[in-house]
Design a protein that fits this description.
The chain is α+β, with helices and mostly antiparallel strands and 154 residues long. The chain is 19% helix and 38% strand. Strands 1, 2, 3, 4, 5 and 6 form a six-stranded mixed β-sheet that branches. The longest helix is centred in the middle third of the chain and has 19 residues.
């Protein structure tokens, strides 16, 4: 039986605090908001859909039996501030780059997030992101995509 929901739970428990002392609130699978207000920022959204969807891909059988490996992609989108707030790029650029570095530090301790799973690779990309998709509302943030390999036997 797959344990991918346990991997999401383990990721939700991992907090990332910037040098300035801000820790984004994490919204897991069963608490994702439909919209974000500025009072919720900064926040992290562990997304199964939207943007780049979380997906299972490259499912392979291990041998003749029913055991498989599957590569999951998990999207962890951190929204720092609304793009129209503040003084612009020079205000949020240092914060989101700092966050990106702190996120990488966190991933070093997330090598095996749950039994029979392993973090194989990740990308961490500061930028401006629309949330929710198609809303026209953009936020400075960091898009983190984790590639998790899971071995499912049975």
């Amino acid at each position: 039986m797959s344990v991918i929901t346990n991997v999401y739970t383990a990721l939700k428990a991992k907090l990332v605090t910037t040098t300035s002392g801000k820790t984004p609130t994490v919204y897991g699978l069963n608490e994702l908001p439909e919209n974000i207000t500025t009072s919720q920022l900064p926040c992290r959204l562990l997304l199964p859909v939207g943007g780049t969807p979380g997906e299972g891909r490259d499912l392979s059988f291990i041998a003749i039996g029913t055991g498989v490996t599957v590569n999951w992609q998990i999207t962890d989108l951190m929204l720092w501030q609304a793009s129209e707030q503040g003084i612009g790029l020079r205000e949020f650029a240092p914060e989101i780059v700092d966050y990106a570095g702190k996120y990488v530090d966190m991933l070093r301790g997330f090598r095996c997030p749950y039994a029979n799973t392993a973090l194989e690779s990740a990308s961490v990309t500061p930028g401006e992101y629309e949330w929710p998709r198609g809303s026209g509302r953009f936020y400075a943030g960091v898009l983190c995509q984790l590639n998790i390999k899971e071995v499912v036997s049975g």
